[in-house]
Amino acid sequence: MPEQSTDQRIEVHFTLAPGGDAFVASLTHAETGDPIVVVQLPRDLVTAAVRAAHPVALELRSNGHVAAFDPLTDADLATGTLQELFDEALEELSPTEDAADLAELETMLERVLLRIRGVRQVAERW
To answer: Which of 11, 23, 49, 108 has the highest CB neighbour number within 10 Å of its CB?
Structure first.
């Protein structure tokens, strides 16, 4: 068996495969760019493994922003406002098909608004 150097410097690359159904992991020789190994991994398996090892948490902030963040580092991964979320959701709804859901959403929002007003009133008394 030929002797092989173990001091090769390699680069690791991850890309999404065409079609988006898999990730492609490749190791290349750092100096020449020659491929050493290329592995295609199903996207759903990689996504499940990453989520299991590194969960994402959601937080509703008092200024109306919603953040998806990394609970290990507290770094924000994505943020948006409640207004943006509602605008996007309402564009996708059908007033006739989703009437019951809209009524439930409206009731929920009215309850939340009453609670927010109550908390604000208590805060204003201080």
So the answer is: 23
